[in-house]
């Protein structure tokens, strides 16, 4: 049964699209400019756009969620290659554009909301109920607004039980932080959270010239696939530990944890926990691996 009335399913249907020309046309026709406040940089390189679709490897009966569809440059590629899509866009200037541009498709829902303020899973459930489908998998594909990349990623990773994969454009510097090694300046909260929650890989390098307006930094597309391999019961404690340890990353971790009131433990308590976990009491946050953080968390009852 054709699940969502999508007549286009399949790859290579974008041959005739000139996204640069279309973007200029739309900006002109609607008399709009990219809005800095919402981190708008429109992706205009068709080669990169189709690579993103390849990397996402969308299967039939999967739901694709795009955060920040903007003028619809990536959205149109998504619609041509997926059973159903959910678009979440904060800027109401984009909503009219998207409605017009995507009017020939019927396999999507467009929501005018701030991603950080909504319960994503309830939207997924609503679509499933209304369309009488149950999606086999939920993937996020997005060219994220750079000023809130980290909160968006944490929300997608922590607040949805349904999302399993995330293919996103981020600043190159953020991509490097995700895959950093201990004892480097890039290593930190983002590294450890991403390592704990996902398998991550940098998939595409994207030069700044692929956008209008061109941002001041180069970008990269990363793929995050959720996994449970490290899953521990008191993960709230792990998250707190990581955040408080890196609150003052240059200090000894013990001191950072005490001055930032980690679980209200005393210096002696923390030193004893480190000893039991086989970790030096002189260690700094950036010297410890995810396994070290997991071992410490397990010692905290
Ligand atoms: N996907 C488009 C636009 C990317 S620019 C393209 O690749 O060309 C980033 C988009 O995210 C903008 O449309 C911006 O309005 C939107 N956005 C910014 N903050 C958002 C938020 N909190 N929730 C949802 N969308 C947001």
Helices, strands, pairings?
Layout: H1 19-29, E1 42-43, H2 46-56, E2 62-67, H3 73-80, E3 84-88, H4 92-101, E4 108-111, H5 120-131, E5 137-143, H6 149-158, E6 163-171, H7 172-178, H8 189-197, E7 198-206, E8 211-212, E9 219-226, H9 235-245, H10 253-259, H11 267-276, H12 290-299
Parallel strand pairs: 2-3, 2-5, 3-4, 5-6
Antiparallel strand pairs: 1-8, 6-9, 7-9
Helix pairs in contact: 9-12
The structure holds S-adenosyl-L-homocysteine.
End-to-end Cα distance, whole Å, is 52 Å
Give a list of the ligands: S-adenosyl-L-homocysteine
Name of the level-1 CATH class of the largest domain: Alpha Beta
Largest sheet: 7 strands, mixed
CATH architecture of the largest domain: 3-Layer(aba) Sandwich
Give the neighbour order of strands across the main sheet.
4-3-2-5-6-9-7
Rg result: 21 Å
The counted number of beta strands is 9
Structure commentary:
This protein has 301 residues and is of the alpha/beta class. The chain folds into 2 domains: 208 residues, Vaccinia Virus protein VP39 (Rossmann fold); 65 residues, Helicase, Ruva Protein, domain 3. It has a 7-stranded mixed beta sheet, with helices on both faces. A two-stranded antiparallel ribbon has the order 1-8. β3, α4 and β4 form a beta-alpha-beta unit. It is elongated. The termini are far apart. The protein binds S-adenosyl-L-homocysteine (SAH). S-adenosyl-L-homocysteine (SAH) binds next to β1 and α3.
């Amino acid at each position: 049964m054709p699940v969502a009335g999508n007549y286009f399913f399949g790859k290579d249907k974008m041959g005739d699209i000139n996204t640069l020309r279309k973007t200029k046309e739309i900006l002109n026709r609607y008399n709009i400019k990219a809005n800095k406040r919402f981190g708008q940089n429109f992706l205009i390189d068709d080669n990169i756009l189709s690579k993103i679709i390849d990397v996402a490897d969308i299967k039939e009966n999967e739901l694709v969620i795009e955060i920040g569809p903007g003028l619809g440059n990536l959205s149109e590629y998504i619609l041509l290659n997926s059973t159903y899509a959910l678009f979440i866009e904060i800027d109401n200037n984009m909503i009219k554009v998207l409605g017009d541009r995507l009017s020939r498709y019927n396999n999507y829902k467009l929501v005018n909301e701030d991603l950080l303020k909504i319960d994503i899973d309830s939207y997924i459930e609503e679509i499933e109920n209304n369309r009488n489908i149950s999606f086999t998998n939920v993937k996020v594909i997005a060219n994220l607004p750079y000023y809130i990349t980290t909160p968006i990623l944490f929300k997608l990773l922590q607040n949805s039980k349904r999302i399993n994969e995330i293919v996103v454009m981020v600043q190159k510097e953020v991509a490097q932080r995700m895959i950093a090694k201990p004892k480097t300046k890039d290593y930190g909260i983002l590294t450890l959270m991403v390592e704990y929650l996902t398998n991550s890989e940098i998939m595409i390098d994207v030069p700044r010239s692929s956008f209008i307006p061109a941002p001041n930094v180069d970008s990269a597309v990363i793929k995050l696939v959720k996994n449970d391999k490290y899953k521990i019961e008191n993960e709230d404690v792990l998250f707190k530990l990581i955040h408080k340890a890196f609150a003052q990353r240059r200090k000894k971790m013990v001191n950072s944890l005490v001055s930032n009131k980690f679980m209200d433990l005393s210096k002696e308590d923390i030193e004893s926990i480190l000893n039991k976990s086989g970790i030096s009491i002189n260690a700094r946050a950036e010297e410890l691996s995810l396994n070290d953080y997991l071992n410490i968390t397990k010692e905290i009852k």
